[in-house]
Amino acid sequence: MLSRLALSRRAFLATGTSAAAxxxxxxxxxxxxxxxxxxxxxxxTDLHVHVYPYDYYGDRExxxxxxxxxxxxxxxxxxxxxNSLLLDNGDFLQGNPMGDYIAYERGMKEGxxxxxxxxxxxxxxxxxxxxxxxFNYGLDFLMKSLAGADFPVVSANVVKEMxxxxxxxxxxxxxxxxxxxxxxxxxxxxxxxxxxxIGFVPPQIMNWDRQHLEGNVQTRDIVEAAEAYVPQMRxxxxxxxxxxxxxxxxxxxxxxxxxxxxxxxxRVGGVDGLMTGHSHLVFPSPDYEGFAGTDISAGTIxxxxxxxxxFWGSHxxxxxxxxxxxxxxxxxxxxxxxxxxxxERGEDRSVTPTVxxxxxxxxxxxxxxxxxxxxxxxxxxxxxxxxxxxFALVADDPSVQIVSxxxxxxxxxxxxxxxxxxxxxxxxxAPFKAGGRGGPDYYTDVPAGDIAIKNVAxxxxxxxxxxxxxxxxxxxxxxxxxxxxxxxxIEPGATDATLLNPDFPSYNFDVIxxxxxxxxxxxxxxxxxxxxxxxxxxxRIVDLEFEGAPIDPAQEFIVATNNYxxxxxxxxxxxxxxxxxxxxxxxxxxxIVRYIVDQGTxxxxxxANWTFAPMENTTVLFDTGPNAAQYVADVKGVEIExxxxxxxxxxxxxxxx
Length: 657
Prior knowledge:
Layout: H1 6-13, H2 27-31, E1 36-44, E2 54-55, E3 60-61, H3 67-80, E4 83-88, H4 97-106, H5 115-122, E5 127-129, H6 139-146, E6 153-154, E7 158-161, E8 170-171, E9 176-184, E10 190-200, H7 205-208, H8 210-213, E11 218-219, H9 222-235, E12 240-245, H10 262-266, E13 273-276, E14 282-283, E15 294-295, E16 300-301, E17 304-309, E18 315-326, E19 329-341, E20 343-345, E21 351-353, H11 359-364, H12 366-376, E22 379-383, E23 387-388, H13 398-415, E24 425-429, E25 445-446, E26 449-452, H14 456-459, E27 465-472, H15 473-483, E28 497-498, E29 511-513, E30 516-519, E31 541-546, E32 549-550, E33 556-562, H16 563-566, E34 580-587, H17 588-599, E35 601-602, E36 610-612, E37 619-624, E38 639-647, E39 650-656
Parallel strand pairs: 1-4, 4-5, 5-6, 10-12, 12-13, 13-17, 22-35, 24-33, 28-37, 30-36
Antiparallel strand pairs: 1-18, 2-3, 7-8, 7-11, 9-10, 14-17, 15-16, 16-17, 18-19, 20-21, 22-26, 23-25, 24-29, 27-33, 27-34, 30-31, 31-32, 37-39, 38-39
Domain Calcineurin-like phosphoesterase: 40-280
Keywords: Hydrolase, Metal-binding, Multifunctional enzyme, Nucleotide-binding, Signal
GO molecular function: 2',3'-cyclic-nucleotide 2'-phosphodiesterase activity; 3'-nucleotidase activity; metal ion binding; nucleotide binding
């Protein structure tokens, strides 16, 4: 342990977690000789206020998140290595209901402690950088939160006043810090070392949080700032320089203002290693197989050791450095990059924890945890209509409608003032809880009245983030054709034919709000279940209109969706990385919560913007949850009746087309 942490380390080890007692020395520590030092750099990233192993939306304990779990790995590393530093790579202040509770309910006054900062203090972090989500609640909230940190927080490219060059800027927080420490070599001798820590955040914060930042701060390009500051850090005596890059691993070549700049950042002279994040992935791992400039077997980016420790505390990233005394300074002679997960997932998707929570971390924020539970269980708004998904696959649906409404509301704000402002905004959303393999109880069912934050989990199951794509009217039609694979082809005049394709997942049944259309079930599907064209001349989507007129195939639209769809998930025409014009820093769940808070009372009744095309003397059957019967009269656009049949717990209904 570096000398500043020696006493707190002993206190920490006294917590009794068994992992530390069972660990063995890393080979670097075992091999280090006189004048050689094994230094271990630990990274957390994208914690998003996840201290407890708890899903506040689902209101249940989970084994896949939580700094309290990651802390067990920290403890083990500190036992394995004589010398270590613990660093955070940003996005710690926002991202789950505990963060929203502090920001919107309790508030931050001068002298208040933010719970995630308290937990980080408990773990004796050495330094952190700012992530893009640190700005979501405004600068006043941010600075009051940072005031409670017992560790320096750095960021080199967020600027209050621009100078002639980055080094002449007045930055929001210090651009870097040089930590003066003592390390112990393989012979037991102590030596001074100066570790430089510099941080960076995507310049896109000026778009993502324009309302908070415009007129208050500006941003510089990540690589530009690094090229200016790193030489200065070296001149000030930094023996090694570690970049806390809250920026993903993206393109190899540098573009001015790029969001995911970690690869060109690694090429900056004087940078010895990178902690990365922002992308909620793991490096080194197959996630980055084939990325230019990366070597996942060596754990390097452009030859520099690098790590990305997942998100929400899922992994601890570790960079091992073997340092050798070179006169009065140090040089890196070998490196290793690894990550330690807090859980393992089996082939059957089951989760097995690899560590247990560290009690001192849990205890440090126990009061705020309990307050957050009360917060998520309390109403944050009201709905004038019930939110249910029993009929989401056969008619326009209120549970999908609220998601679409929230996405459009959010994207309208995000694209204001951009080159895309003024284009019509559509919104694509799919039902997630719609029976199927989930069983007859696997449906959303929130009654009219109060909505609690935890109800949002019923509306949106996955931690997707919002994205927007720019597409043509022709692509909108093909998007809907792909979605219409949900249904079997129905012969005109058929009696009680099976409506739904059982091999088509409900999360691929996108409804696009902002246009009106009908689905002609007499036509074969144009796409198969995987999105491949199988009937090029088929046209299930008929009467497709925008603002009451047939849609212009050449007209351009913005479609609000999620990162899965915009990233190519489901193979939908028009939904690709190439058409993506906005990648939000916010999850769809968070956006829904914000929308409900903003509106106060929502009116999500379905507007029947899509229906089936009429087919004379034709009936079809579908199965849904038995509680659906109470809502039959509210369903618009289709004639539905309950049958007397129950199939494996599902209630069977008949639709007259």
